[in-house]
Amino acid sequence: MGISNLKSRIDEEISRKLDIKSFSSTTTTLHIADLGCSVGPETYSAMQDIVESIELKYISEGLNSQIPEFLVFFNDFSSNDFNTLFSALSPNKKYFAAAVPGSFYQRLFAERSLHFVYSSHSLQWLSKVPADLVDQNSLAWNKGMVFYTNAPKAVVEAYSAQFAEDMDSFLCARAEELVRGGMMTLLMPGLSDETPLSECSHCMLYDLLGSCLLEMTQMGLVSEEKVDSFNYPMYIASPKELQGLVEKNKSFIIESMEMVSPLTMEDEMPSAQVFTMQLRDGMQKPIKEHFGAEIDLDDLFDRFSKKIADSSHLIEENYKKPNHLFMVLLKLGD
């Protein structure tokens, strides 16, 4: 879901902190990466906005004659539909484009080759489900649940540890790929430091989907064993957690970090159908991979849509609170 005021925040950070003078002396092509781009229209508009904002920065610095060419790398898993993505690119775009398939939890680009990194709604996805969650001999065995909202402390800690490991891998890879002074802008679902899991709007949605899976188990539509061995491969981090991970990594300075809302005062709440479509886009692949032909995805998400409609008052109350984490990082010198 888009953040309507994100463009102005990125524009502001580029204007204030992107060190284009150091770039101008070393390159005639500025490299931008969208990590976890998927195929939706938001990636096109985000890249166009970033390119235009950097151009304005050059103009404001009196470097009109040094405005570089722009090369945008669109990254996602190799299973991403890059054909659809590239066929929808505007012929009037202000940049050259290339696809870079692969996991962003590992190196993807040459050393010191990137100047700007953007990632939206991707870093909440874990590289893998923590193994202890499906180990019957572990304290973190998550039997009868598919997420960590109401799970024992050991389950939450297993999720948190996996997220910390993944974020360190992400930061280490980008630290090698970004030039000194390079900028990263990251947006992901977040949980305010003072907000309990029970009031996390994202957790509410995933819990509702989990209740649909359990309901289908009780009706004999999917096996209990399959549900017991399934867990959502995602984690909703807090600003405090992310700050600690960045500071521990020591490769970046936090220029900005804040919780933001997906809705302005003028925006209406998304409908149950919109929530269902968005969650299905993200979750149907891991669900299908785990359950295979045993599960009817249409049935699952029809049930979810009905539960969303029945719980709309509770979701609306919490969804309008700041529930996305926006972070701007600058690469430190080697």
From TrEMBL:
Highest rank taxon of the organism: Eukaryota
Keywords assigned by UniProt, alphabetized: Magnesium, Metal-binding
Listed GO MF terms: metal ion binding; methyltransferase activity
Entries under InterPro entries matching the protein: MeTrfase_7, MeTrfase_capping, SAM-dependent_MTases_sf
SUPFAM superfamilies documented for this protein: S-adenosyl-L-methionine-dependent methyltransferases
Coiled coil: none
Any Pfam family: Methyltransf_7
Entry protein name: Uncharacterized protein
